[in-house]
Amino acid sequence: MQERDHKSGATLDRTIDAIKQGDFSEAVGICKEYLVEHPNSVPHLQLLGHVLVRKGDLNEARRQLELAASSAPDYASLYEDLGSLEALAGNLDAAVELLRKAVKLDPTITTAHKKLARALADAGRHDEIDSVMEDYFEQNEDVALVAAGAEHYREERFDEAESVLVKALRKDPENVDAMRFLGMTYHSQSKKMNDAEALLRKATRIAPDFHQAFSNLGRVLIDNDKCDEAITTYQELIALTPDDDDAYAGLGRAYAHTGDISSAVEAYRKSIKVNPDVPAIHMALAHMLKTLGRQADALAHYRNAIRLKPDLGESYWSMANLKTCRFEQHEIDAMEEQIQSSTLSDRARIHFEFALAKAYEDKKDYSQAWDHYHSGNQLQRLQVSFDTVEHEGRLQSIKEVFNSDFVAAHADSGCQEPGPIFVVGLPRSGSTLVEQILASHSQVEGTAELPNAAAIAYGTGKFRHDGLLYPETAEILSPRDFTAYGKEYLQQVAHHRVEGAPFFIDKMPNNFMHVGWIKLILPNARIINTRRHPLDSCLGAYKQLFAKGQEFTYDMIELSEFYRDYVEIMNHWHEVFPGEILDVHYEDNVMNLEAQVRRVLDFCGLPFEEQCLRFHETKRPVKTASSEQVRQPIYRSALGLWKKYGGAMDTWREDLADVIDTLPDSVKDAAN
């Protein structure tokens, strides 16, 4: 190829400047002016070809590039350009031959190999692609390593992916593609999450325009509970790629995790504006709108998701999970048709079973409703892991450690902050109603189901060399330790407290197992135990497909055994902390709301406020399955629903007969 002299270089620079300014006509003129005197200048002919392609003049571009190739027949880059042009013109076979010539002349041209593979794919010549890429990898071992690692990652062979990608990084510590795929490999296994974050951060520092790494980093930050940093990351990604719907979707997820539901809605709407055809984003937006109480808008987006993907069972179930939604007959027919499909995934089938069950329950066809609930639960039980023996052993260990003597010996321990109110109990037992009543008080803020108390407890067993685990770790803690853990809990949940109210609610139901731990680290915390008639409670849980956790609810016998375990440990806590736990029965709330509201407020040391009786008027995000129900006044239709299901309840009725006998008469009367 000809040498670049001073005049040639200056002309090329002027042409490139004109291209950057978008003035293609000026760029063409500069090149042609030089070519009058130097008609065989390959750099000018090639650059002129590029400009003409951008102007859409493919025939003239082809003529200029072919003229350049006749002057420099061994210059691979020209054949790559001609191949790209032919592919753009739809002449795929011609493109393949030209690109083959380019890689034969210079096997190290990365882009030519990729373009050749793409042209073969577009031409339907898939059987030739592997040999092309193998040739390429033979020329570039580093690229081959990353490509192999990426393939292992995509096929979920994570150990192999990690091994290959670590090797690639040892050879080239600055290889951002290897960093990205290794970070994703760690993230996909939920292991070495800090390493995943560090790798992706480094990749974005080295390559600040590497938008795929920014996107992956955002996901990792969310899962590392660094949602504020995730928001910043997605905002940086949007600045890089303002038309990237995935970036806005990621920003929506990050805002949702921080509890900023309004900002999440805005981000999801922007994602949909860029790309309105992604069903998952319509569904995510609908979830946020549901949380804000905007049911009509939520339903519209759930239905948009279904329009885009008719077999999206999750969207149907999400509609059913509004509890107040009633399916139209054509929607029931569509679900019945979908559930007959042999190609439906297990996950989708489970969603359809639960949604159809709710549809038939609303039609008062309890026999069909039960058939679908039972089928859905049987399928879901295969998807989750729950060990009754292990659970019972854990509860027994907790009771043995947190006995009356141990609690008395640590009576002066813990952080004395009086603000937390823990609402515990089994799912679907009225805990959201109690939360909404309390959150309607001017001195109380509702937050969410916070996992922090249990996580801190189990965290006491991490990084120990003696193998000691919670709850046994509690036995070796000092009063200062309990105080420190109480402060740690308050620090961890502080970002959920945005209103500045003196009291706040932690409504994690399964904290019933950890009452002893909570009372030692936060001795002034209030504990409210929400209960419901066992048969309605078990039925309510069996009717619910939970987003995560609550694995004990998908088998009838396991569910009744879990209920018994719950009653036993709550009886234990009442013995250990007499007068410090308030049982609130759902049935009493429904039958005599004001008396129960006054009772709850008295227990929390709060003055009575009329607004607590009008809890359904309180505007706040509610994320649980009862979100729409607590936006309505008290209703009695859910009392004794178990009777509608007749003989299907026999297992629970027999298993829990002695528990039912101990209930207050007011509860038995309301539910029978």
Model description:
With 672 residues, the protein is mainly alpha-helical. It has 3 domains: 6-141, Tetratricopeptide repeat domain (Serine Threonine Protein Phosphatase 5, Tetratricopeptide repeat); 310-383, no CATH class; 399-671, P-loop containing nucleotide triphosphate hydrolases (Rossmann fold, 3-Layer(aba) Sandwich), CATH 3.40.50.300. The chain is built from 35 helices and 5 strands. The chain has helices at 6-20, 24-37, 42-55, 58-71, 76-88, 92-105, 110-122, 129-139, 141-154, 158-171, 176-188, 193-206, 211-223, 227-240, 245-258, 261-274, 279-291, 295-308, 313-320, 329-339, 346-362, 366-381, 388-401, 404-409, 431-439, 452-459, 479-493, 515-521, 534-542, 556-576, 586-591, 593-603, 650-655, 657-661, 665-671; strands spanning 420-425, 444-448, 503-506, 526-531, 581-585. A 5-stranded parallel β-sheet has the order 2-3-1-4-5, sandwiched between helices. Helix 15 (245-258) packs antiparallel against helix 16 (261-274). The radius of gyration is 32 Å and the shape is elongated. The model is unreliable at 622-631 (pLDDT under 50).
Summarize the structure.
With 672 residues, this protein is mainly alpha-helical. The chain is built from 35 helices and 5 strands.
Itemize the secondary structure elements and their pairings:
Layout: H1 6-20, H2 24-37, H3 42-55, H4 58-71, H5 76-88, H6 92-105, H7 110-122, H8 129-139, H9 141-154, H10 158-171, H11 176-188, H12 193-206, H13 211-223, H14 227-240, H15 245-258, H16 261-274, H17 279-291, H18 295-308, H19 313-320, H20 329-339, H21 346-362, H22 366-381, H23 388-401, H24 404-409, E1 420-425, H25 431-439, E2 444-448, H26 452-459, H27 479-493, E3 503-506, H28 515-521, E4 526-531, H29 534-542, H30 556-576, E5 581-585, H31 586-591, H32 593-603, H33 650-655, H34 657-661, H35 665-671
Helix pairs in contact: 1-2, 1-3, 2-3, 3-4, 4-5, 5-6, 5-7, 6-7, 7-8, 8-9, 9-10, 9-11, 10-11, 11-12, 11-13, 12-13, 13-14, 13-15, 14-15, 15-16, 15-17, 16-17, 17-18, 18-19, 19-21, 20-21, 21-22, 23-30, 29-30
